[in-house]
Amino acid sequence: MHEMKHSSSLTERTNKAIGQALDGRKRGMMTPLLFAGPAVIASIAYMDPGNFATNIQAGSRYGYTLLWVVVMANLIAMLFQALSAKLGIVTNKNLAEMCREQFPKPVVWGMWIVSEIAAMATDLAEFLGGAIALSLLFGMPLLVGMGITAVITYVLLMVERRGFRPLELMIGGLVAIIALCYLVEMFIVPVNWAEAGMGMIMPQLPDAQALTISVGIIGATVMPHAIFLHSGLTQNRTEVKNQKERRKLLRFSNIEVIIALSVAGLVNIAMVIMASSAFHSGHSDVAEIETAYHTLTPLLGIGAAGVFLLSLIASGISSSVVGTMAGQMIMQGFVGFRIPVWVRRLVTMIPAFIVVAMGVNATDALVYSQVVLSLALPAPMIALVMFTRRRDIMGEFVNSRTTVIISVIGTVIILALNIVLLLQTFGVNIMA
Question: What NCBIfam families does the record point to (predicted)?
Fold first, then answer.
């Protein structure tokens, strides 16, 4: 990530405390918090504006029916984020660097190009989310909102120069804002908990549109850049002296992944429940973030609508910061060079500004950006499964047979859904 000599005193103190925890000198209830950070940052990808768009569509059109997709996507995400963190901790290399080392050059360049397209799709979602919220809150044009989101993102990225800890705490604060907003919403909207519970465990797809939204949910949940990023966040974060310390570090990492992604999963479930409870009966045509806001105001009051916008602003800004960090890491890993952060922002921002300037419907653009992400997803998933099952790379930390089987099943599910979506896009009616 960055050399430790640049780190602030906060980062140095964290590193010292982590070293004491690993060699057994520091114990206590608060010890796991020292290791919190990488999964919290990665979890932002699971609560970005793309999730808002797909979850609002799922809840308003299909009620609680598609909640099982959110649960399944989150479980797959947990496994792959844990594997990504493990790769970084065990090899001290990130996933993109491993790909460059292990794969032929044409494959590496192909993966890099696909990953950059995915980064642009990610940026589209994040900029639009922040801009929609700002334009609704202050009545400003969408393009102006996007410009403001870009400036705020750049300022927050500068925090990273002061070491990893300040940035982790800042992102953690934004995650807390999003989670609290949805906790509040759950007390405002009327929820049928029995139906919601059934929706989480009963797989069903009512029609072809439900399939498209389901793939969008998975694209918005299990994200390519988050899988790449997590390995980079763990690769040099903590110095370990021996395999015993590495094993302990992996255990703390897995605990953090489970907690951080459980919070992200609950936020996504809450989004669908909110949309379902507020819009499904009588307002099932609500498919857009703007309409959701305007409909929430008379239905549940300005408080509910305001909380919704606050969560969207926190989501847009934080996920934009994380997206840029991932983009830098992907480029550095695949092709071995970095570009200034402002150039990176500019390159991935331009398609988002073009889409808005052309007058494309903002929420539709959000949903389709998530479909693009879902199509870019199999490559890093397959690479991660391949590397973490190889003993010559992972040594004693190689995946167990059970982990390999479950990760292959997760990858096959994503691939199958993508193939179905592609066939549907080209006019083959799967749901007939």
Answer: nramp, Nramp_1, PRK00701.1
How far, in Å, CA of 256 to CA of 258, rounded?
A: 5
Return the amino acid letter for 134.
L
CATH class for domain 4-21+38-425? mainly alpha
- Smallest Cα–Cα separation from 106: which of 116, 117, 114? 114
Which pLDDT does position 298 carry in this prediction? 60
Tell me how far apart the alpha carbons of residues 367 and 316 are, in angstroms, rounded to a whole number.
Answer: 15
The pLDDT assigned to 2 comes to: 43
Cα–Cα distance between 22 and 14 in angstroms, integer?
A: 12
End-to-end CA distance of the chain: 49
Q: What is the pTM for the complete model shown? A: 0.85
Average pLDDT over residues 163-170: 79
Query: Which stretches of 358-394 are DSSP H helices?
Result: 362-376, 378-388, 391-394
Which range, of 75-89, 197-211, 263-277, 333-347, averages the lowest pLDDT?
A: 333-347
Cβ-contact 398, 386 below 8 angstroms: no
Report residue 40 as tokens: 């919290």
> 218, 73 in Cβ contact below 8 A?
yes
Q: Which of 328, 350, 325, 382 lies closest to 121, judged by CA?
A: 350
The answer to whether 372 touches 217, Cβ cutoff 8 Å, is: no
DSSP, res 189:
S
**Cα–Cα separations (whole angstroms), residue 193 to 257, 267, 270:** 27, 16, 11
Closest CA to 192 of 68, 64, 62, 59: 64
In one letter, which amino acid is 345? R
Closest CA to 66 of 275, 255, 358, 333: 275
Element (H, E) at 113: helix 105-138
Quick one: pLDDT at residue 6? 41
Instruction: Give dist(CA 135, CA 312) in Å, integer.
Output: 12
* Burial class, 364, CB count within 10 angstroms (exposed 0-12 / middle 13-18 / buried 19+): middle
Boundaries of every domain in the chain: 4-21+38-425
Q: Which of 230, 216, 217, 267 is nearest to 93 (CA)?
A: 230
Concatenated DSSP letters of 51-95: HHHHHHHHHHHHTTTTHHHHHHHHHHHHHHHHHHHHHHHHHSS-H
From the number of C-beta atoms within 10 Å of its C-beta (0-12, 13-18, 19+), residue 155 rates as: exposed
Write the CB contacts of 306 (distance below 8 Å, at least 6 apart in sequence).
none
